[in-house]
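We examine the record.

___
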Amino acid sequence: MKKIKFVISDLHLGNGRFLPDGSVNPLEDFVYDNKFIEFIDYCGGSEDADVELIINGDFLNMIQLMPEEQKDGILTERASVNKTEAIIRGHRAMFDALKEFNAHPHRRIVFTLGNHDPGLLWIGVQDTIRRVIQGEISFINEAYRFDGVHVEHGNQLEPIFRFDRKRYFLTRGYPEPVLNLPWGVFFVKDFLYRVKKSRPYIDKVKPYNMYSRWAIFNDFWFGLFHAIRYIVFIIKTRFSSLPLKRAGALKGLSAFIDVHRSPTLAEDAGKILEEEDANIIILGHTHIPIHKIFGREREYLNPGCWNDVTALDLNSLGHTRRLIFVRIDYKHDKPFARLLEWHGQHHVFEEVRA
């Protein structure tokens, strides 16, 4: 039986496109539910193949909280389960499609941990997803390795988003266990998403260091005000009771330098290929699609993200909406990976999100 593996990354599912009162949810980033359902139908279309769907991190956007969720946050298992259930309700048809895919023989789904869905570390969250999707499901906290292929989300390669893999949970001094989240998660959750209320596009601009320079000339007072707020936020987090939040505060000062150094993570990918003697590495996290060939038949693939992105780099300047995935086929038991773009089925029209 032939084998096929599909890899997608960074969908950032929120609570759904519409709120309970029927109004548009301004915090929802994912609006391609129908195209995703069609994609899942395509993945499961090979009846004579063993098919694995690898969801490589940031499938759920647990850290983008609705106003009513702010108080509970996502640190505890209970809060993470509640957030997961809210996301499932908001994208019920997508989870039904995953359930249908996984109901067939020789089908399975693998979830890897990302910085936007740290709640996947909780058994309660995993049980919730298993109960909804059913079938064979695996959860990978670190890298997923098979047949000379290395798959991980990529947040561990950025200091501000790096989890302490020896200490995922904190118990001492807390009434119930909490997640030991890296500083970057709090930066996104407590700083960036608040800025997003006035600049909805701000978390979807790549590379971010170019946007910071653009703001100096085109959005000066906003840029200056939030640069000051950013420094104040760093100082506040330096005195947090959470270890990684406190320890990572100073790394926030060099965050823009790190992004400028390797926005695609290509340098890090090359090092991993050498260290592990792997042939293929697949990352997400950067929201920048790339397929780079290294020497000795080694390659790095990144499918980017399934959200709208504003690219400031001249190679991809403009507003992009690309639903990209990695497909791995086998020839003589050797994996071959391709970076492909999903266009979906033909439709005469589709709804526009202005």
In short: The two ends are 45 Å apart (CA to CA). The chain has a mean pLDDT of 89. The first helix runs from residue 33 to 43.
